Amino acid sequence: MIYQRDTMAYDKPLPVIDNESRPFWDGCREGKLMLQHCAECGAWVFYPRVLCTACHSERLEWEEASGEGVIHSFTICHRPAGPAFAGETPYVVALIDLKEGPRMMSNIVGADPESVRIGQSVRVTFEKATEEVTLPKFKVIS
Fold first, then answer.
1. Residue-wise pLDDT tens digits, 99-110
2. What is the pTM of this model?
3. Side-chain half-sphere exposure of 88, counting CA atoms within 13 A
4. Low pLDDT (below 70) residues in the chain
C-alpha cells in the first residue's frame, strides 16, 4: 500500500539515489520492498551495496522481500530532528529485523507511539514523499 502525504512540499531530507540503490527506490515507488539476495551463498543484504556481506560475492540479485519483520529496538522522538519534523512529534524510529534476515531502520506509523513494543510484528507500508522518492515505513500488525 502506498499512501501520499498532504499536498504540501516535502521538506525533510531525502535519500540520494545512486546506481547501487536505484532498484531499491524503484521498488518502493512501486509498493515493493526490494532487497539484494546473494546467488552464491543465499544471504539477504540490506542496505544496497556491490558485495555480499556474508561471502563477498558480487552475485547479488534483486528480489522482492516479504515486507514483514519484528521490532528489534526503537525510540520515541519527542524532540524533532529538525524544524521539518516539528509537526510530527512524537514519532517512532525503529530497528526492524526483516523476516529475510537484514535489519533496517525506519519509522513505525499508524500506532500510538506509547503502544509500540520490542518484539511486535510489523509490515511495510509506503509513503510517497516526492515523484521520485517513496519511503518504506512500518505498521504494527499484532
1. 999 999 999 999
2. 0.91
3. 19
4. 1-8, 142
For residue 87, give the CATH number of its domain: 2.40.50.840
Give the total number of structural domains in the chain. Answer: 1
Query: Distance between alpha carbon 94 and the CA centroid of its chain, in Å?
Result: 10
Return the pLDDT at 9.
Answer: 79
Find the DSSP H helices in 1-142: 22-29
Distance of CA 42 to the CA centre of its chain: 21
Could you tell me the CA-to-CA distances from 135 to 39, 42, 58, 60, 82 in Å, in that order? 27, 26, 26, 22, 18
For the chain, the straight-line distance linking the first and the last C-alpha, in angstroms and rounded, comes to 18
Q: How far apart are CA 91 and CA 78, in angstroms?
A: 7
Q: What is the residue whose three cell numbers read 520515541?
A: 76
Contact (CB, 8 A) for 104 and 73? no
Amino acid at 128: K
Range(s) of the domain holding residue 54: 2-140
Number of Cβ within a 10 Å radius of residue 100: 18
